[in-house]
Amino acid sequence: MRELFRSFIEDVEFPLKWSAITRANMVTPELLSLMRQAGCVSANFGVESGDDEVLRAIKKGVKTDHVVRAIEWARNEGLMVVCNFMLGFPEESPAALENTLRFMQRIAPMVDFFSTLGVVVPFPGTPLYDDNHRRYGFSEWWLKPEYSAFPAPPRNELDRTYRRYIDDANLELDFFRYSEEMKHLIGECLRFKGEHNLRKMGLLPDPVHQPWAAATPEVTA
Question: The whole model's pTM is what?
């Protein structure tokens, strides 16, 4: 990979800008520098959780310290930073979700955007599905009509923009039979990263200068 980047750098005609999706433990300052020189403008890190016990349970092979370090290195190279989180693993507890929310808050000043959505979906052929579908009763869920019904989007276009970044309809599918406390905490994580993104884009509702925002529904349990 390094040789590929060096070939891009040596080719003065290479015109493309590109982004990379990678793991936090697969980058070094040297590699990120080569990536930037070769035209990379954004590093997207799959974080998944802000709780080290959950990361160990899902066999991510990364710790939160690795994530912080990788983000700092990417920022030092002037790269845009995106972080992906997944919420609601069956191994996750309310305390773990609270750790994830606090970790998001910790890294937010260094992150340009968080992934939208993020509630875990047990897709067929994955360990998440194979290990859990009988226990939670969602075997072949993709064939069942109740899993394909989504609520109608808000009619108000401004409200629709807000809800698009704050909500995740997969939470309502409730694959893992979340407690009300879990649903509430997942909603808080969704809201935090959604509002972070809206704020970065200059679209966060302002109840003073945009009175319609006062009627924006809250994310509830």
Answer: 0.85
